[in-house]
Amino acid sequence: MSHRAPRYLLYGLLREKKVNLSSLFDAFSRHEKIWLTSIPRPRAIALLALTQGLASVNIAALGAVAPSLEHELAIGNVAFGLLSAASILTGALVSLPIGILGDQQARVPLLTKLIYIWAAAIAISAISPDYAFLLVMQMVAGAAGVAVGPVIASLSGDLFPPSWRSRAFGLIVGGELLGAGIGMAVAGTINALGNWRVTFYVLAAMALILAYLLKKGMREPTRDNMGKLAQDVLIDHTPSSVSTPVGSVKADTKRYLLEDIKEKQIQPVATRILREDPTYWPWLKSARTILSIPSNVIFISASSAGYFYFTGLMAFGVLYLTQRFDLNTMSASLIFVGIGLGGIGGVIASGWLADYLLRRGIITARVWVTGISFLLTIPFFFLALQTSHKWLEITLLFFGAAALGATNPSLDAARLDIMHSRLWGRAEGIRISLRYILEAAAPLAFGWVSEYFPEQSCHLAQCRHGYGLQISFQIFLVLLAVATILLLIATQTYPRDVATTLFSEQPTRS
């Protein structure tokens, strides 16, 4: 990656419409101080965020109890990596039918059932007599935990308007990272005080509480919101002159993205405008339509690269810290949770930033914010893995986690922008399946590379501990560079794909 790349990325962002950095920070300090109190449907965000974290809780908990599992079940890094890989791969396969159900059935009851299944599988994992039994139960837990993704995406699209989606996903994805932190902290602490079996019982009990809260606290939203917005913008459009403060709900629900598409006369791709309601389309026809959208293919690829690296970190992060700094599992887990807080801050900040730039008229703001975040992740992690100073490495890992986390909310929002609302569940199901099929290889790949480069192969003093995993984390940074390049391409395809979706919503309105 050239040293000019950051300058090029920033230039491309700024040339669309001048952004004054002082006004950006002024908006953050003055206008957005109360933005948390103006979130539409805050209860829904909280519940969806906690549910989104199920898969991460599972992976992080496995990572936290890795030393105990490897010792008690007499397995190595590759066999342990297979636990996470099998869990992820099963979830990828199940996401396809769940995506179809998410487009055709009530989503809140469906989400509740998936949480119950996850809780049951985790609880049964606690009585595993051997490795094979645990592997099967982790596959069931992975199926339920990963498959919540398409349902959450569909719900979010109907709950939040386009101008709010980056911020909403910032909080929801923050729940995914928070779930990883909870899983890491709970698992690490309980494992140190008791054992890994008690850890799974506690996590299952927490999931049952979540299912109850979701069932009692969330109502099913209507599915025709995007159709109404499209009709208003394309037929009954009247430019708004609202003077409401930026932080208020009324200002945030303005049709910034859709109105900008029309005002800048961005033309749709005529051959891809949908002329009928796709709710009950055959699956293959839906898949062809979903994968014919150029920006969607790019977003899936970039997201897969980012989550591949994230999964490797979740699977082996605690083990790396225990080896690198000679820590016990509990101490390493707490440090890893602290590093993960950077990721939570990154997802919230990037969601706000992308929506702020969108309100400034930068149509491709979500794509640029994601691309720059991917780019910034690379030097932070690379430098962290080069230093021999403990707290400097932890600090750099914190900022790297913030940058990696910042890639998610804007990309999640952008995927809804380019997809017909009646295809959201299936589109997310396909994305999750493709993403997780690739991501399922992450624990195995990280584990294999770490064993291919044993500590004995390095003769430098600073390579004495955790050398194999250190090499793994460095090698796979190349995937983040690829994601950055792909998102540069998406800045050219995204506006027309949004326009095509806007026009495609019209036939669903009678």
TrEMBL record:
Major facilitator superfamily (MFS) profile domain segment(s): 44-498
Family annotation (Gene3D superfamilies): MFS general substrate transporter like domains (1.20.1250.20)
Location of this chain's protein in the cell: Membrane
GO molecular function: transmembrane transporter activity
Membrane in keyword set: yes
Membrane topology designation: Multi-pass membrane protein
InterPro entries per record: MFS, MFS_dom, MFS_spinster-like, MFS_trans_sf
CC annotations in GO: membrane
One Pfam family matching this protein: MFS_1
Membrane-traversing stretches: 44-66, 78-98, 110-127, 133-156, 168-190, 196-214, 297-321, 333-353, 365-385, 391-411, 432-449, 469-490
Record's keyword annotation contains Iron-sulfur: no
Keywords of the record: Membrane, Transmembrane, Transmembrane helix, Transport
Name of this protein: MFS transporter
Species annotation: Acidithiobacillus ferridurans
